Amino acid sequence: MDLRKRINFHWQLFIPLALTLCIVFGIILWYQYKREADYRAEILTSQLDLINRRVLRAYENDQGLRPFNAFIASYFEGSEFESVRITVYSDLGQLQYSLNVPLPFEVTNEDIVKVVDTGGDSKRLVIRNHDGTSHDYYMLSSAMSPDGRVKVISGIPYNEAVDDAINIDDTVWLVIGGCLLVTLIVTFYFTRMLSRNVTLLKDFTYRAVSGGTFTGMDKFPKNELGDISREIVTLYRDRVAAIEQIKKERKVAMHAFEEKARVTRQMTNNINHEIKTPVGIIRGYLESILNDPEMDDETRTRFLQRMLSNVERLTNLLNDISTMTRLENGSDKIAVTKVDMYDLLFQIECDIEANHLAGDLTFSFDLPLNCFVSGNPGLLQGMICGLIRNSAMYSGGTSIGFRLISENDRFYVFAFYDDGTGVGEEHLPHLFERFYRVDTGRSRKQGGTGLGLPIVKSTVTNHGGTISVHNRVSGGLEFIFSLPKYTASES
């Protein structure tokens, strides 16, 4: 069933409560009304009983009834007992005394109009009159003397005054109705307050299911139910936000995974392409030597030297691939220690002439003493040598240098530069891409693997730094990179 077609929770709460209050009110009012009516009737009949007892007492004391009747007439003048009748019969039904018209000795069932039970030995009867007077009905009370020889019957006309004395005023019903109406209004108000949380939560649920926006957060009452409702809405919103965040993170992770797979495929294709070239050259030279047994020694030697050159190129390529794989897949396993950059550059400067790493370029560095970074000595040395080798192969300059630019609490910022020709601005964003070559023919001729600068960037990033490259105003390239400082807490 559609939630919107159900009976409103407010009415579900109000109607049973209102019916319960009406029933309880009705039972209490009916009981009180009956009790009040019987009490009023008992007051009237108690007066008649009192008259009967006084008459019987006078009979027992042989006193005359005329003085008593005169007192009764004067005492009840102007009240509902003004027309009271008192009749005395013997046990045989003979009339002995009567004040006003005598009342009947016996009352038949046909004469009884109403019986008022006041508890006691006798019932108060309202009978039809047979004496032809203007009063049609009487309210009677009777009593017998202790010796059973005299019966006293007293009664008053059942007129409007008596009826008003017995029955409750109709205005009482207006008061009762007003009180009941006020009670229902108050009940309606408080049930509406209690159901307000449910109504707002239902609206929140409907909007949450339909994808709408719930704006009634501030409408919840400031009580325990309101606090719980606000907590429910807040938890739902936090959950939705968390799900959205998870979706975004998953999307980013999937994008990163797909990008990594794409790069891996691209790298695999590039590696296959790069390996095929030297392998194809070596195979060609081997086939030429094998197919020509009469080849002269000079040609054979030249072919073997070219094969050796391509074997070295293939070896360098495999070494660079191994280094890239190590950096990408085992960055969290790289051993980090205290590295003295001044001492590292000094050793590289001393080795350059021996291994002819810089070619015809001159190398210099400008670093302060006690310049300690947190890193892997072997990787950092390989990175700097990679920059030197790249400049020696492609810069076309005469000198290269290494210097400290700036520092802060966490990092040193270094610069590696040359005074060569630089590269076109369109090539700068791609220099750190794997197997990217500014001049393909020239690069292959000089034996580059296309992984030198990507290895440099991976080394810096795996140490927690950043690297960038730009053309110098005076000519050549300048690489700016940062490395973390070594702190005593790392020892």
Structure description:
The protein has a 6-stranded antiparallel β-sheet, covered by helices on one side. The chain is built from 10 helices and 13 strands. The protein has 491 residues and is an alpha+beta fold. The chain has helices spanning 9-60, 66-75, 160-166, 171-210, 224-291, 297-329, 341-355, 377-394, 440-446, 452-462; strands spanning 85-90, 95-99, 112-116, 124-128, 137-144, 150-157, 337-340, 362-366, 372-375, 399-407, 411-418, 467-471, 477-484.
- What is the number of independent domains? 3
The DSSP helix count reads: 10
Q: Classify the helix fraction into a percent range.
A: 40-55%
Task: Let me know the average pLDDT.
Answer: 77
What labels would you give this structure?
about 500 residues, alpha+beta, Beta-Lactamase, Helix Hairpins, Heat Shock Protein 90, 3 domains, six-stranded antiparallel β-sheet, five-stranded mixed β-sheet, 10 helices, 13 strands
